TrEMBL record:
Cited SUPFAM superfamilies: Winged helix' DNA-binding domain (SSF46785)
N-terminal signal peptide: none
A Pfam family hit: DUF742
Source organism of the structure: Streptomyces taklimakanensis
Name used for this protein in its record: DUF742 domain-containing protein
InterPro entries recorded: DUF742, WH-like_DNA-bd_sf, WH_DNA-bd_sf
Length: 118
């Protein structure tokens, strides 16, 4: 294959078609929300975009990572993931709060200490 089609990795279907014109949902999903397939067997009539999300979500991924894997804008993936959450096909975990994240200055000190020993 050559020409402009060769490097194409994203769908030629417009995002508003994929979401059926919806730009939001009843489930709030920030981009850093962690998602994972629940293991429930999806219905055979599920759109291909939903199936691709379920394939990606076999392990924990953030919503932003799923969007990157699919080559779709995060707002589109938010709508689709919200549907999957409502249908029980995807489970979510909240992102790690900033207070529980590692202190960057402490990590730098540890790194410098390790480097000085090498």
């Amino acid at each position: 294959m050559s020409g402009p089609e060769q490097g194409r990795t994203t769908s030629s279907v417009r995002p508003y078609v994929i979401t059926r014109g919806r730009s939001g949902s009843s489930v709030s999903l920030p981009w850093e929300t962690l998602v994972m397939a629940s293991g429930v067997t999806p219905p055979a009539t599920l759109q291909p975009e939903y199936l691709r999300i379920l394939e990606c979500c076999q392990g924990l991924l953030s919503l932003a990572e799923v969007a990157a894997h699919l080559g779709q804008p995060p707002p589109v993936v938010q709508v689709l993931l919200a549907d999957l959450v409502e249908w029980g096909l995807v489970e979510t975990r909240p992102p790690v709060p900033p207070a529980e994240r590692a202190d960057v200055s402490l990590l730098r000190k540890v790194l410098h200490g390790l480097e000085s020993r090498l």
